[in-house]
């Protein structure tokens, strides 16, 4: 199936004389969150200061179809049962709606959220699938994952390669040294022992992501755990009824998480789409005098 390409001159005619493309702003947490959450490092790190509840937080911006919202667990606290919950919501955090103690069942009961506990047992309920089954929204080739936000090395989805440092803190937490880089893309798989590759989803250093793709005018949610893809974990999500945000609950043993940036250098096609969608609302795209294939691309369906 051939791609429909816009030339640079065609892009310019659609977008005007403004700067063609700027590097996207970093993904951050929303300023509205549970009362036990403290945000730091330009709102890319979320920490639960006390207790085990009131730890809900959101992505600042809605997710695009095929955008991966990726976290790394940095701190773990003993003495609790349960751990991180993660998923999607159409509850808009900018409205400052009343937050429940817990994402499960609190947000899910509202009917506009799709959230799962992140554990080996819970993920075993869903298909362990190949990321290329999410094509064309997300796919892998040449050791890179291609998403609606550009291309990133496949290794970014996987746990940290270097040895994690377990530091004993006064409040009973285990953590990695958050002042250092949390991953090294230069490490070789050949030096990474096969027996060390498995990491429990709630472990410090574990990388957890959520995304969605469009199927037949509805959306499906998929979870990514240390490079493995599970799902669909939710289906029939009415993505046209409102923006979709990532939602995270730092529940139980999960004490602190950090957002891992997943935007890459976009292709010309993606750059064009981003710019066009800045000028035209999603609902009006269907009425543009454009080829069907291009309409499908602009609406993340091809």
Describe the structure.
The protein is an alpha+beta fold and 302 residues long. The protein contains six helices and 17 strands. Strands 1, 2, 4, 7, 11, 12, 13, 14, 15 and 17 form a ten-stranded antiparallel β-sheet that branches. A four-stranded antiparallel β-sheet has the order 3-16-5-6. It has a three-stranded antiparallel β-sheet with strand order 8-9-10, with no helix packed on it. Helix 1 (8-15) runs parallel beside helix 4.
Oligomer: single chain
SS class: alpha+beta
- Could you name the ranges where pLDDT drops below 50 across 5 or more consecutive residues? 1-21, 162-171, 176-196
What's the total number of strands?
17
Distance between the termini: 10 Å
DSSP helix count? 6
The proportion of residues forming helix, as a percent range, comes to 10-25%
**What general form does the structure show?**
globular
Give the amount of beta strand, in percent.
Answer: 25-35%
Average residue-wise pLDDT = 79
Alpha-carbon Rg, integer:
20 Å
| Biggest β-sheet strands, sense, barrel | 10 strands, antiparallel
String of helices and strands: HEEEEEHEHEEEEEEEEEEEHHH
Write the layout of secondary structure elements.
Blueprint: H1 8-15, E1 37-40, E2 45-48, E3 56-58, E4 69-77, E5 85-89, H2 103-107, E6 113-117, H3 120-123, E7 128-129, E8 139-141, E9 144-147, E10 150-153, E11 167-168, E12 173-175, E13 207-215, E14 218-225, E15 228-237, E16 245-249, E17 254-260, H4 268-279, H5 282-285, H6 292-298
Helix pairs in contact: 1-4
